[in-house]
Write a structure and sequence with these properties.
Helices cover 49% and strands 16% of the residues. It is built from nine helices and nine strands. The mean pLDDT is 95.
């Protein structure tokens, strides 16, 4: 049985790959950058499992179906799907090119939805499986100055909860993992600012891995994150706005 991990060349996806490999699962890592995939495979070579890589740009419409078919063509049977591929775009929404945000939605939402749909069918036929969709605490309120990312994660949360309800009793476990800030390359790529306190990718992966058989659909790590959910979403939105706007202003002043 194999584990398919999108965004598996780095961050939470790669850390999950190590945990699954340690438990004897064969791996299929998918990501856009072939070089990063090759490096990830080399870092996993000491595990006694098969590690296959597939370069795929999930921002392209139909790419999820292409990835699914490539896995089938290789004769691989997926028992665990991890939808980890995703990224954000920081800035004023009207200044971010529409084409960039369309690509973001393609990766964060459309590909995730398509892969969830395709593999859920297979897993129901197989009598079981696990689907892990990586969300964010940003899913629980709007995110000014990173609006499309927070909105995309709200979709992930809503879609996962709905599909998990539909799939109840099929033997397939479906979860949405919603960590707070995680120390990955996300902030550098998004043009945002990494907070002073972050969870390591390894700790986030370990937390999720230990709870993949839980009855809880939404997996939210950390006491602080649970405490924050007690505040009204409007209050949380304005806190996000204040932090993001302050950093954006500092960034703009530096470039002047």
């Amino acid at each position: 049985m194999a584990v398919l991990i999108t965004g598996g060349s780095e961050g939470i996806g790669f850390e999950l790959a190590k945990l699954y490999a340690a438990d004897g699962f064969d791996l299929i890592l998918a990501a856009r950058d072939p070089q990063k995939l090759e490096q990830a495979a080399l870092r996993l070579k000491d595990f006694p499992v098969s590690v296959q890589t597939i370069a795929a740009d999930l921002s392209v419409l139909g790419s999820a179906e292409g990835l699914y078919q490539e896995v089938r063509n290789r004769g691989l049977r997926v028992s665990v799907l991890v939808n980890d591929a995703g990224y954000g775009l920081a800035g004023r929404s009207w200044q971010i090119p529409a084409a960039e945000e369309e690509r973001l939605v393609g990766v964060n939402d459309i590909a995730l939805m398509s892969l969830t749909k395709l593999y859920l069918r297979d897993m129901i036929a197989q009598g079981g499986g696990i689907i892990l969709n990586i969300g964010s605490t940003g899913a629980f309120q709007p995110g000014p100055y990173i609006a499309s990312y927070y909105a995309s994660k709200s979709f992930v949360l809503s879609y996962t909860r709905a599909v998990a309800c539909e799939a109840a009793g099929t033997g397939v476990k479906i979860h949405c993992f919603c960590p707070g800030p995680v120390d990955t390359g996300f902030y550098e790529r998004s043009g945002g600012h990494k907070p002073g306190r972050t969870m390591s990718a390894a700790a986030a992966a370990k937390y999720l891995y230990a709870r993949q058989h839980s009855r809880r659909v939404v997996i939210l790590p950390g006491f602080v994150n649970h405490l924050a959910m007690l505040a009204p979403s409007g209050m949380r939105m304005h806190l996000v706005a204040a932090m993001k706007k302050r950093y954006l202003k500092q960034k703009e002043e530096k470039t002047e």
